Amino acid sequence: MVNAQALQGQWNQIRGELKKKWGQLTDDDLRFNNGNIDQLVGKIQQRTGEAREAIEQFLTDATSQGASAISQAAGQVGQYARYAGDQMREGYNRISDQFGRGYEYSQDMIRDNPGRSIATAFGVGVLLGVVVGMALRSR
After folding, report:
1. To 10 degrees, what angle do helices 37-48 and 52-112 make?
2. pTM: predicted TM-score of the whole model, two decimal places
3. Residue 10 belongs to what H/E stretch?
């Protein structure tokens, strides 16, 4: 027997499949009210003369194909999410390594050239003080 919830969740797609298979069905024939599968199958059977079992089998197959497609799409989304996560981790690791190397390089420069480092820091401090002082005066 067809699962009413699965049928209702995929109804627009399944309705199109029913119209393809049995072209004489109208939108009124394919009204799926309140999840009443028996009523739907009865209308299709009355309109097409098809056996009830054949209609139910068609609906079961159609809902299982839709569920399979949804499952496949979810799997692909999961794969993409894992790939994106891996790419982000790799990028983070690369940036972290670059900052680490830059920090080590700076430490080595300061250790090897303490006088130059102090003079540079003093010059930057004076320059920054001048810029801030000018900005405060212009207010």
Report:
1. 120
2. 0.39
3. none
